[in-house]
Amino acid sequence: MKTEEVIKHAFDPYFNVPLEAWKSFVDLGEVIVTTKDQIIKDANKTEKYLSFILKGSGGILLWNNNNFVCIDLCYEGEFLGDYMSFLCKSSSPLEVITFEPSELFRISKANFDKLSNNTEIGDKICRFASEGLFIHKQKQQIDILTKTASERYFELQTRQPEIIRRTPQKYIASYLGITPQSLSRIRNEHALKH
Question: Cβ neighbours of residue 104 under 8 Å, at least 6 residues apart?
Answer without folding.
Answer: 31, 32, 33, 34, 40, 51, 52, 53, 54, 56, 80, 98
